[in-house]
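Internal tracking record. Fields below are filled automatically when a chain is submitted to the structure queue. Please do not edit lines marked as system-generated. If the sequence contains nonstandard residues, flag them in the REMARKS field before resubmitting.
Queue: standard
Priority: normal
Entity type: single polypeptide chain
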Amino acid sequence: MKHIMLLFGVIICITLECNSQSMPGGISDMDVNDPKLIPIVSFSEEMLDSSVNSIYVHRIDHLLKAQQQVVSGDMYYLTFEFNETNCLKGKPSTNGCDSVRKSEICLVKVWSRPWLSTNQLQLTHFNCSSTNNTDNL
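SYSTEM-GENERATED OUTPUT FOLLOWS
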């Protein structure tokens, strides 16, 4: 009986260790350079830029953290620097837009459902804070 309990304990430990790395529905870290993130980052940038009350274009300068969760589709959690540029909204720039100041650190949640014909990406949450105050993220 003692050996059976020990064997049972070992099986539980192995099972928990294996599942902790890829728990179904769990949030897992992603490489910020993963090509899968390109449309997610572009969508996030577009949504946040359109919500900013400014005559200047805002851009994501640096992706700080990316995570993914398998739900009904995929939920992406992104943390990035969102900065004001020297380009005016609605005016094409011939030489690119340069960041003129660091504005905010933002956390967004984007829900990806590629099988839908419309609204394949949906911004479900965003929270931005000045670079001086990142405690609330």
